Amino acid sequence: MAGRPDVEAVAVSFLVTVDRNSLGAFNSCEGLGVEVVMEQREEGGQNGWVWQLPTRIKYPNIKLTRPVTADSKKITDWFAGMSNGVKRMTAVIEARNPLGEKIASWGLHGVVPVRWTGPQLTHDSPKVAMETLELAHHGFVST
């Protein structure tokens, strides 16, 4: 809905698909970013500055969190399928506004799940059962 930035600017869910298989919606998404690693070189006789040379690009891991749902089984199945070897995949993360409309998306290349953290289940502390999925990737692709 163009023209309604107040609605479009607030993302309330993040839909995740891996090789076109949906993992469902997550409540939070951390780690979308990129960093150019810079190497510093000092030049003899040049005291005014230090050379800043770009060397490589780094992508932080992405952490997705949500309450445990029926979609949680898709994540454990994904990890179980890796017992015969790890295969890098392509993923898409779509940010959705309160109306369910897509406001942004990020394609990820070379995705591998690196960690899943399940809920802490205790009888003396009734809380929402949360899970976190952490993904490593090799960079962004167009969606």
From TrEMBL:
Q: Which GO terms describe its molecular function?
A: structural molecule activity
Pfam families documented for this protein? Phage_T4_gp19 (PF06841)
Which InterPro entries does this chain map to?
CHP02241, Phage_T4_Gp19
Q: What is this protein called?
A: Phage tail-like protein
| Annotated organism of origin | Longispora fulva
